[in-house]
What does this fold into?
Amino acid sequence: MLFVIDFNRFLNRLTLYS
It folds into this structure.
């Protein structure tokens, strides 16, 4: 579960910088 949240935040950052 924690891994999913961390991955979600990572994707969020990617979309933000995109």
User: Anything to note?
Assistant: Residues 10 and 16 are 10 Å apart (CA to CA). The chain has a mean pLDDT of 91. Helices lie at 2-17.
